[in-house]
Amino acid sequence: MAAGGLESLQTQVSNDLRVFRQPFFPDMEEFRIQLSKSDDFAKRNEASGEPTRVLYRVRNLSRFSGFLIGGIVGGERPSNYAESPRLWNPYFRSIAIRGVFFAFDLPGSNRLSEFMRTFLEIPGSLELTVTNPYKQEAYRCLAGLGLQAVLDERVRDLGSLNHLLLDRESRRVIAVNTDGLGLVRAVRERVKISGCRALLIGAGGAAASIGYELVRKGSCLHIANPVEEEAQRLADRLSRFARLGRSISWSGLGSLQGRLEEANLVVSAVSRGTALSRDEIILLPTGALCVDTRYGDQAEFACLAGSLGRRVLDGRSMLFGQFAEAAHRLRRILHLDASLHHRALKELEAEYLAIPL
Fold first, then answer.
1. Rounded CA separation 82/103 (Å)
2. Domain range summary for the chain, segments of one domain joined by +
3. CA-CA distance, 232 to 228, in Å (whole number)?
4. pLDDT per residue as tens digits for the range 29-50
5. Strand, helix or coil for residue 312
6. What is residue 80's three-state secondary structure?
7. What is the distance between the alpha carbons of residues 226 and 246, in angstroms, rounded to a whole number?
8. Which class in CATH covers the domain with range 181-317?
9. 132-152, pLDDT tens digit by residue?
């Protein structure tokens, strides 16, 4: 692959494509970037007084000649926070393919369609992960890619996607949405989803995908949101996917009386703060599983619920599930040996979930 392919992307994104957050290759060099006061990483580490952050790079993009190329694109500077490179780069090494995964910061959704076309035209392009706030916009851009698009049923039903997989043999791009599947994978060994009483806090894109999977798999779902009308709209959207005899209800956050005491599963899909107060969490059954879609020091709900003796999962388990679901589909495209693939995922999951953030 000529370096010019990646350099054509470099003219569209705001970050240096040579930058990684981890040393994934033996010849990567360490360097430091100066943090501005507005940088999210700087805000979270203000107490430490660290004015810089360590990143890694290779000297020349020709280092990736002949590699398969993956990446994550988003408008909220995924090069600063995205965990996807910490999953895809080790996975590529484990299955013994020459692949590299970048994080792309794309300022402005008006450039997303051009970016997607450019990425998919690069020799070796394989997988593009789409994160906030571009999941719905990426769905709308599919028609202009110049490739036949195969839509997973979840993409059609929800009108959003988070993975594009390029099948070069058939010249097709496969669009999938694994957000809700990632949560189901994370919780299925801890909670029986069919028949469970699930409380979903939030009504945005991630909440829609999570709620979709829960009701399709037989949960009785209650959606609560600070803006009650948004909870109602999401409940109305999901009602046609509910199994016969299962209910979907909705309310504002101030109207959860009776819902807390009976919940088996509570999922926080809010973008900031904690979904429930201390007094509300105390009302949950001691066996309830509390899941936060955020991770690290942003997982305030999981942290608070854990301190009160509840079972918790933060967003990294869900994130790994989203990645694993995409990797399963990629295995079929690349005709990978199934045992090699599953062994690589198992080892990577154990290693990744043990990494402190």
1. 7
2. 3-177, 181-317
3. 6
4. 999 887 765 555 444 444 555 5
5. strand
6. helix
7. 24
8. alpha beta
9. 899 999 999 998 888 899 999
